[in-house]
Structure formats: C-alpha cells, structure tokens
Amino acid sequence: MDCPSEEQMIRMKLDGLSDIQSLGFDIPNRQLTVFHTGSYEPIFQRLDSLKFDTSVTESIISDDFVRSAENTGKERKLLWQVLLINFFFFVLEMATGFFSRSMGLVADSLDMLADSIVYGLALFAVGGSVARKNNIAKAAGYFQLLLAITGFTEVIRRFTGMEEVPGFQTMILVSVLALIGNGLCLYLLQKSKSQEAHLQASMIFTSNDVIVNLGVIIAGGLVYLTHSKYPDLIVGTIVFLIVGQGALKILKLAKG
Q1: 47 CB contacts (<8 Å, ≥6 apart)?
Q2: Which of 53, 119, 170, 238 is the most exposed, fewest CB within 10 Å of its CB?
C-alpha cells in the first residue's frame, strides 16, 4: 500500500467475503492484517488482481478482531461531523467563488466536495460493508471528474480571455474561514486518537486541505499586490488537477 486511497481499493476488493471478520491497515509499513476464518486463498485471489505484490508475512490464531458497537458509533459520528463541515464549505466556497470571480475558491470548493466523498466512503468502511457501494463510488468519481474537467476548461478560457481581476478580499476571507473549518476537522480527527486507517487517511486528506487553503490565501494576496488574475488562475489549475487525480483514484477503487 502506497497511499490511503489504496486502503479503500482493498476494502472494496475484499467486500463480500463472509470469512473476513476485520481488517487492519498499516499504510507506512505496507502491511495488511486480515482477521478471518477458513482458508486465506480466496483473500489472496482477490488481492492478487490489484497487483500489489501480495505475500504472507505471518499467520497466527487470534481473538483480537472484535470491534465494539460503541467504538463504531463514535467513528460514524465523527465522520458525519467532518463530512458536514466539508460539505458546508463546499457550498460556501462555490457560491462565493462565482460571486468574486475566483477560480481558486471554486477549485478549493471542489476539493472540499472531494473530501466529502472520501469521508462518505470511509463511513461505508465503518462496521462492515454497504450494499451497492461500488456503484456509489463510481458515480461519485465520475461526478467529481466532470466537475474537475469543467473547472479546468473554465480556467483555460479565463487565461485566454479578458476577465476581470477576482475579488481578493473574498478570496482571503472565505479561505481563512475554510482554513478554520479544516482545522476543526483535523482537531476532531486527532482528538479521537483512532488508529483505524480510514480515519488516519482522513487526517492526511485534511492536512492537505490546509495547504490548499493557504495556497488560495497567498494567491489572494498576490492578486492584491499585482492587480492580476493570474495568481488565482494558477492556484485554481493546481487544485483542479488535484481534484481530477482524486476522481481517477475513486474510479479505480470502484473497479475493484
């Protein structure tokens, strides 16, 4: 496993195997722990199709796979909290981005939407599988990719056209609010002290969002100093590319 998105790919690939009781992910060390009954051959057959160079490091008898309903409930509540925060800022940044003519804000709003999708998929991972989640992931991935392509096309149009300079005040103010929102999400995730990989992955995504927010704030400052649209368009391009890459990962996940 090289990145958090691969965890979701593995979860979806192994979905439906009744012998699996629990999965444990150690992304930095590229290790997967599977608590299961019966033979591990069906598990290997599915993992091999992902081309992750799968091999057994250890096989032991263990009773340590039971997760309490209380912990599951806490994780669901936490993921719903950060999902709603991200979706709120998606709506806010999308609206203010169009109002202020800032592609940086529009792109950041789509990044927030992408995170909402990731948190939604993480909700599916809590406590077991959810029916038809592959189709949901596929629809979400295509929708996100469509938005990214549309946004990137608009950036190209604005690069070549005579567009007004975006409102740097709105860019900076809304990005600061989004930064606070992401900071709150990061605080909630860290406060949980959960070692579950989908929550650890959520912290990584949120940390990346903080960097994106800072990028839009800096772009707003450069728009003010240069009286140019280009800093906003450049940061918008970068974020749209990030969102598009995330969409492709979700679609790859859905194919598993």
Answers
A1: 10, 13, 14, 54
A2: 53
| CA-based end-to-end distance of the chain | 15
The model's pTM is 0.65
Please tell me the distance from the alpha carbon of residue 233 to that of residue 256, in angstroms, as a whole number: 35
| Cβ–Cβ < 8 Å for 8, 253 | yes
Task: Pick the most confident of 73-77, 81-85, 167-171, 195-199.
Answer: 167-171
- Looking at the predicted structure, is the pLDDT value of residue 4 above 60? no
Confirm if 106 and 219 have CB atoms less than 8 A apart: no
Residue 199: both structure tokens together: 């929550």
C-alpha to C-alpha distance for 130 and 15, rounded to whole angstroms: 9
Using one digit for the tens of pLDDT, what is the confidence trace for 43-54? Answer: 777 667 666 666
Report the pLDDT value the prediction gives residue 58, as an integer from 0 to 100.
60
One-letter amino acid at 131 equals A
Average pLDDT over residues 60-67: 53
- DSSP H or E run through 143: helix 133-160
Comparing C-alpha atoms, which of 125, 152, 147, 151 is closest to residue 136? 125
Residue 240 has pLDDT above 50, yes or no: yes
Q: Spell out the domains of the chain, with CATH numbers in brackets.
A: 69-255 (1.20.1260)
